[in-house]
Amino acid sequence: MSHIRVRVAVMAVLLAPLAACSAGSGSDASDRSAGHGGPETARGLPTAVTVVPEGRGIRAGGTVKVTAAGGTLTSVTVTDAEGRTLGGTVSADRTGWVSLRKAAPGASYTVTATTAAKAGTKHTTTSTFTTAEADRVNKVDWRPGAGSTVGVAQPVSLVFDRPVTDKAAVERQLKITTSVPTEGSWGWLKDWSGQDRVDWRPKEYWKPGTKVTLDAELNGTDSGGGGWFVRDYSTTFTVGASQVAEVDLDRKLLTFARDGRTVRTIPVSGGTPGGDKRSWRGTAVLMAKEGTVNMNSETVGLGDTYDKMVDRSMRLTWSGMYAHAAPWNDRWFGRANMSSGCIGMSDADAAWFYGQVRPGDPFEITGRDTKGTVAPGNGFGDWNVPWDQWQATSALR
Questions:
Q1: Torsion (CA) 147, 149, 153, 155 in degrees, nearest 10
Q2: Does residue 178 lie in a domain region?
Q3: Does any domain span residue 50?
Q4: Are the beta carbons of 140 and 166 closer than 8 angstroms?
Q5: In which domain, by residue range, is 232 found?
Q6: Active site residue 21
């Protein structure tokens, strides 16, 4: 990064506590040409302002620093070509300023600073710099969507389209705000797609009514491996009523409870014991209500077993486990597990249940003969990781 020493100038938001520094003659001369000489020269040494960086093609990801010699800073603004600003903090002696955000790639910035000289004069100086374009841009897919109402088990989840090798740098830019005090932690994992992913989940299920905001101030952050973020992300959602579906595969029964009270019990048929058609156990979170879905056994490694349109489909994992209507298995509901891994129920029960549940509701699945516990990255299996182990996956622990 190059340095420039220029004379004072600036148009910016004044730092109120600094405005009283203009004692003395009270003149408000301004040397906007940033050259030498000027009215302050006769009164003593002029205030000099140094801005870092300056120039073209600067590497992104650095902070902006402004220092004043022979006077104090009264305001500093750093603005990009779209009018967005980088906030910053001023030092105790008011001779230094550092941006809180980093310079993003492929951007042009104007730095404007106002200083007050010891003789009492004020001056402004303006400097510009541009950052080099990113070699690779890292994009983010995040859930849940803004303005949504979700169940008590819904994590905040960000999936990155490029590897994140500097996880700590990324995690520092992520902030969760809740309307009620909520203990929680970020945790890094591999998504079912194989991509890097970071989720924030509470220690326990969300308290109903909690409003949650994610601020991912990633613009200008290097994710490592040459991947840069070039925008910020945010989402705000609300946690709805506590709704829990307990699925007992041994009893072939689903019990649906709202706010701790049983609303309905539904006979079901789970995955066929003894092979690849078994269901998963543990806590699965309802990912989406997908309606009518074409289910093909070849897409989940079960060969040419079935290919049919299935109604009231509620996705529980990326690997293909759903709760859904399964009228072809009507004689087995409540009696035997005879599905290909899903939680099947009658048309009437599925229609009612589909109308009650929402994404984020937990399905707590138990049973002796299953093919294992839902993995964290297979949908939202975060709840199957003990809390202390979950906290340990944060990059800042």
A1: -10
A2: yes
A3: yes
A4: no
A5: 137-239
A6: no
The total domain count for the chain is 3
Q: Has 324 been annotated as catalytic?
A: yes
317 in Cβ contact with 285 (< 8 Å): no
Contact 262, 255 (CB under 8 A): yes
Residue 379: other Cβ atoms inside 10 A: 23
Q: Which of 3, 36, 123, 324 is catalytic?
A: 324
**Tokens representing residue 193 in the block:** 């797609």
CB 253 within 8 A of CB 270: no
Is there a single domain that holds both residue 234 and residue 250? Answer: no
Instruction: Quick: pLDDT tens for 334-373.
Output: 999 999 999 999 999 999 999 999 999 999 999 999 999 9
For residues 177 and 248, membership in a common domain is answered with: no
Do 234 and 148 reside in the same domain of the chain? Answer: yes
DSSP structural state of residue 205: P
Residue 40, judged by CB atoms within 10 A of its CB (0-12, 13-18, 19+), counts as: buried
Q: How confident is the model at residue 119 (pLDDT cuts 50, 70, 90)?
A: confident
